[in-house]
Amino acid sequence: MQPVQNTRPISEFRTHQDEILNQTDESPVVLAQRSRPRVVLVNVDEWNRIAERMNALELATKALHTSLKEERKNQKHYSLDDLEAKIAQQKVAA
């Protein structure tokens, strides 16, 4: 997703509402108040696509988190002393 490029003063929205709303069919429109970005207008179809992507990402994140949690449960954990002992054993064997 690209940063919003189309910025219009909020005063123009009052006088050119139809034109600006039609522009949202092509890309989001930022309305600026006192030369500062204030709100973003996005058409409903784009908003729904964004919401669907966010939901899919949230589900994927939860699934990955659950998978990693299960994987972590099945792993053996060693203390630093255990690891140092294993390394020392390998050096002796070599």
Describe the structure.
The structure is a single chain. The protein is of the alpha+beta class and 94 residues long. The chain folds into 2 domains: 6-42, YefM-like domain (YefM-like fold, 3-Layer(aba) Sandwich), CATH 3.40.1620; 44-75. Helices cover 62% and strands 16% of the residues. It has a 3-stranded mixed β-sheet. β2 (29-33) and β3 (36-41) form a beta hairpin. It starts with 5 loop residues before the first strand and ends with a helix.
CATH class of the largest domain: Alpha Beta
Count of DSSP-assigned helices: 4
Output the helix-strand order.
EHHEEHH
Q: Provide the gyration radius in Å.
A: 27 Å
Sheet-strand content, in percent, reads 15-25%
CATH architecture tag of the largest domain = 3-Layer(aba) Sandwich
- Kindly name the structural category: alpha+beta
Residues in helices, as a percent range: 55-70%
Q: Could you state the CATH homologous superfamily of the largest domain?
A: YefM-like domain
Mean pLDDT: 88
Overall body shape: elongated
Strand count: 3
Contiguous low-pLDDT stretches (5 residues minimum) are none
Most strands sheet: 3 strands, mixed
The side-by-side strand order for the widest beta sheet comes to 1-2-3
State the distance separating the first and last CA atoms. Answer: 54 Å
